[in-house]
Predict the 3D structure of the following.
Amino acid sequence: MQSYKLVLVLKSPLSDTDRKKFFENLKDWLKDLKIIKEDDWGQKPLSYSIKKEVNGLYVEVSFEGEVNIPSDFEKKLRTSDNVLRHLLLKN
């Protein structure tokens, strides 16, 4: 069984409905992988501005499954308007 950690830096003025919609999309992108934990680290200032944002909303997501991550998963994260940065780690 493979386990993964994903750390996301999201745009800080993200509304609750947009955030819920993003995480629904995230679950759809991961399909057969089970999300174990979502840990909200809160809003923090960025060291430098990213896409004209000076604050970011940090979220850690842990998930696992018998299958690998879909090959286009990171591309979807990069092209998402709400994601400023991401880090995907395989445990």
In short: The first strand starts at residue 2 and ends at 11. Residues 43 and 57 are 4 Å apart (CA to CA).
